[in-house]
Amino acid sequence: MSKALLYDATMCIGCKQCEAGCAQQNKLRYDDAVAAEPVQSDHKYTVVLTKDDKFMRRLCMHCEHPACASVCPVGAFHKTKEGPVVYDVWKCIGCRYCMVACAFNQPKYEWQSLNPRVRKCIMCPDRVAAGKQTACAEICPTGATKFGERDDLIAEAQDRIRKNPSTYLPRIYGLNEVGGTSVLILSSVNVENYGYPASAKIGDTPMPEYTGRVMEKIPDFIPVWTLVLGGIYWVSHRREEVAAAEAEHKNGSAR
Amino acid sequence: MKFRLTFWKAVFLVIMALGLYSTFVRYFRGLGAISNMTDQFPWGLWIGFDCLCGVMLAAGGFCIVGAVYLFNVERLHSVVRPAVLTAFLGYLLFIVGLLFDLGRPWFIWHQLIYMNPHSVMFEVGMCVMAYTTVLFFEFLPNVFERFHLTTPIKWIKKIYPVLIILGILLSTLHQSSLGSLYLIMPSKLHPFWYTPALPFLFFGSAIAVGLAMTIFESTQSAKAFGRHLETPVIVELGGALLVALWVNALLRFEDYFHRGMLRQIFKPSYEAYFLWLELTLAFVIPITMLSFKKVRLSPKLLYLVSVFTVLGFITNRLNIALIGFETYVGHHYMPKWTEFSVTLMIIAMGFALFGVAVKYLPIFPEEKQAVKPRLRTETRPVVATPVLGHAGD
Fold this sequence. Notes:
The complex is a heterodimer of chains A (255) and B (393). By secondary structure, chain A is of the alpha+beta class.
């Protein structure tokens, strides 16, 4: 049902067309200087990294259960039914909890702006909703970045691993990480070498569950704790009233 | 009234001047210009100190109100007003701090219309808003009394039970939820500080610090405003503090024990040094000192204990907010001087507002019992630096 991107690092030639296409789609400046920047930032949502002649792309993973959407106090992030995790700048108050919470460190901030926005890959939601593929997938000359149904892409990735077991590491990064993501990665080397968090470290548990376990107790906690506090208050003040009444009674009889 | 420039007044003015400059930089040059926060370190000193520590330091309000009105510990009655005042100012200043830290503070009201009930931050925000309102009503009688308005005091007395219970409920919720904020970062926060027990630890430390802060501020204001310090009150608070510290220490031990961390925490490492500092200041020194009867009966030494406790738990929260992320991020974060200057300005404002409130409102019991309120201003002893007596201490 939901759409996804499959990035196959073994097919990537490092041409950075995806970077350029992304910048054009999002109306960002893109020149040699930006192309040379090896990090993602408020003006570079995706980056192609090079290490030992091998390439690796980084972009927002579009988690199935996005941490950014769950932590945002004003709900500025949400996952659309097609798959992209999108951002509503109007709602944002700038608390930056999304940036701290994201296991992949994807949200970036306009630190120099006086009315800053959170910036990240939003998976071309307008194009996707219109039935088109993302700008990066469309422009990719080798098909290293492929757009499609998540289930189809998983099947295809498994197929590629099965057919070329010597080329690929036997895993699809993003299949189960933090409960699954809408960006899937195939590679011959460990993605961890390129700054991706280790699968073992982030685990398969959807991030929102960590706080959800506590938050779900609050609706029960409020009435129970109110009753307890009210009970204590009543008991201690009742005791006071009784003591006062007794004292009065004693005084009265003594007189 | 003649203005005399004393040392602390001068310090205060310097802090305010630098703070105003930083405020200008913040709103006209942006967060990037004023702070060393980056995409790798999106939360800095302001979240670590102004928010996490600020709310903890203001916990005295609900601790003392709870003790006096819920558990009928009448002996503490004289510190209710200063504790509520500290809490009220603390929360107001917390909101001021937020206005600096939020990227788009002009949209802070979005919290009220775009609600995301799954967000811990949303819960903290709503609780803080509601609790500040509760504190406002708990604080109001001071103002009414000052202007001899007896009718509205009667109204507030009528709703007082509701205010008390609501205040404690809201405090329980958001003091613990400040810890829950970090539950979603298991892969980022260092295991010394990341634990599913974070909400419990935050609530526990709020109570310990609430008690310590009440000792601290009672002693400080006695010194600064030339008032008589009520020894039995301080002694009572010291005893409660010892219990609170033991409970906190046991919680910490239990947590490390269950997670099998006991061996790691004694191995020297960058984080371990900061952990040791925190544990020494927050537990080892205060608990050892409080174990001696001599200390428990001496207001001077209890004051020292309270300072250690407060510093210890401030270290704890800064460790969680800043040090605990450095290994993950891969580099250190050192706040820019302008970040410090904003924080200092907020602290200085706290001290100054406290001084002003004490000067003009019946915060301390001597005044409360004054027969003819109109005489108060005339009979009050003139203290050299009533407003800034301990600004920046």
